[in-house]
């Protein structure tokens, strides 16, 4: 189960890591083809794992998906930007070839693509539920950006305070 009571971006990144691992496990077992319906099913499994034991209130599905995407953005931080993830994930929605085994085989260099694949699974699930992807991704990016900026501000404030207390 994911930690829904996260206090730090590192905890959010850990949630994203767990989600990406679930995606990789499911997609690697899917075979050579991974059409959109199968991606959406993996996305559904990721959502269920994220909110295990917690009911998402009706009307808040897209907000709940934005939190998941934001956690994946945190996990990707330092490897690929959210906009880079989206540039890979959006065209992948219409792909049918499963590139997960190839990305796994190239090791660390395949990690950004694997995380983008996890993003694609969430987008496929959202699209199957008729959720507007533009609004979903805008909300996820805004949440991620606010969280990153808040952490940067707290670190800068602590550094400044340390300089003046010496």
Give descriptors for this structure.
7 helices; mainly alpha; 166 residues
Helix and strand sequence: HHHHHHH
The pLDDT mean sits at 92
State the shape: globular
Number of strands: 0
Distance between the termini: 43 Å
Q: Counting H and I runs of at least 4 residues, what is the number of helices?
A: 7
Kindly name the structural category: mainly alpha
Radius of gyration: 17 Å
Outline the low-pLDDT stretches.
none
- How would a crystallographer describe the biggest sheet? none
Strand content: under 5%
What's the helical proportion of residues?
Answer: over 70%
Offer a quick outline of the entry.
The protein is mainly α and 166 residues long.
Give a structural overview.
The protein is an all-alpha fold and 166 residues long. 71% of the residues lie in helices and 0% in strands. The longest helix has 32 residues. The protein starts with 8 loop residues before the first helix and ends with a helix.
Summarize the SSE layout with pairings.
Blueprint: H1 9-28, H2 36-50, H3 61-76, H4 82-92, H5 100-105, H6 111-128, H7 133-164
């Amino acid at each position: 189960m994911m930690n829904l009571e996260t206090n730090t971006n590192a905890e959010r990144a850990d949630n994203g890591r767990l989600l990406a691992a679930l995606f990789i496990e499911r997609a690697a077992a899917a075979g050579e083809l991974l059409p959109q319906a199968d991606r959406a099913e993996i996305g559904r499994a990721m959502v269920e794992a994220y909110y295990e034991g917690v009911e998402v209130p009706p009307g808040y599905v897209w907000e709940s998906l934005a939190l998941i995407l934001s956690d994946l953005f945190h996990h990707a931080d330092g490897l690929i930007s959210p906009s880079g993830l989206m540039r890979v994930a959006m065209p992948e929605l219409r792909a049918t070839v499963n590139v997960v085994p190839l990305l796994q085989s190239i090791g660390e260099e395949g990690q950004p693509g694997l995380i983008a694949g996890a993003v694609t699974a969430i987008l496929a699930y959202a699209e199957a539920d008729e959720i507007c992807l533009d609004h979903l991704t805008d909300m996820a990016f805004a949440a991620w950006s606010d969280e990153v900026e808040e952490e940067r501000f707290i670190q800068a404030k602590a550094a400044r305070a340390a300089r003046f207390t010496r």
